[in-house]
Design goal:
The protein is of the alpha+beta class. The protein is 22% helix and 35% strand. It folds into three domains: 2-29 and 278-319 and 333-389, no CATH class; 49-89 and 99-196, no CATH class; 204-270.
Amino acid sequence: MVKIRFPQARGAIGSALAGALLIVATLLSAPAHAERVKDLVSIRGVRDNPLIGYGLVVGLDGTGDQTTQAPFTTQTLANMLANLGISINNTSSANSTTSPLTNMQLKNVAAVIVTAVLPPFARPGEAIDVTVSSLANAKSIRGGTLLLTPLKGADGQVYALAQGNVAVGGAGASANGSRVQVNQLAAGRVAGGAIVERSVPDAVARPGGLLQMEVNDMDYDTTQRIVAAINNMFGQGVAEPVDGRTIEVHGPSDPGQQVSFIAQIQNLNVNPAQPAAKVILNARTGSIVMNQMVTLQSCAVAHGNLSVVVNTTPVVSQPGAFSNGNTVVARQSQIQMKQDNGSLKLVTAGANLADVVKALNALGATPADLMSILQAMKAAGALQADLEII
């Protein structure tokens, strides 16, 4: 895909930008090259599994949670200390109506959520990275240490244990109400901070050596080409398409031979089918992305811009001396409305992406205007592509 970013200011698009877009579009309009099956499909049963846990980060430099607003931090610390044999009396005394937990101020402790991804075929004892994110109102978890945190899967079972020093990529300082911060201080990572304690059963091959592969982008043509490439190498009937995404492969029943069999399949080169023509409009960032299959029919476009400007100026009315009057502040507004001329412009047909980019650049429209123009072109049947707004 080629990504077109038009300038935010109104006016015609510069010739330098238009020339660069034409060069990129020409390069991307070249015929598709062969790709490995490894990059086109995924094998059913070979997948990541997300893990999540709740824990504490200690050793902060006074940047932890404000426990009055995050009482669960002190509750978690009390529970952890109880497991270590240290009891904190949580009952009210005769002279106090508040509990010790309420009076605790833990500026060096922060409650965090710990997340990780358990890779396929992970075995007990393997180390994986974890991400630590502040849960309450800690200012920073930089320099903290994550205490032992169980990481659970979707089934509620503990699959890993996380602990270690948190590395934060940001920095910050504050004094006298002023604060400077670079990047995010409330989240960090612990490289190799979790040890796998339980493996996930990976049933890649079913009885008889039957494997299932799923094409990443559903396309009947691409699926058929992958099936043909596998059958040409291993013989007819080895691969059979189930639908536009799923392929069944009859591999060897011996697990030791399945690794070599799958490796050979993944290294096969296949020319994927051309994707469907599509234009992606991102209204938030003003980005327009279109692939090389987009074509354009000849059409005429007239687009005018309407702008309304409201200027408000405060006017102070000062009474005369010794008049016992009051100073009155009023507001005076001036409204200006301007509408640009929307002359009719001819947009020539474009048989490839370079021609489409050249025709759209000739309109000299801003991203917001161009989004409306593309939608109108699609409604008129001049734009041969699917529009998707994200």
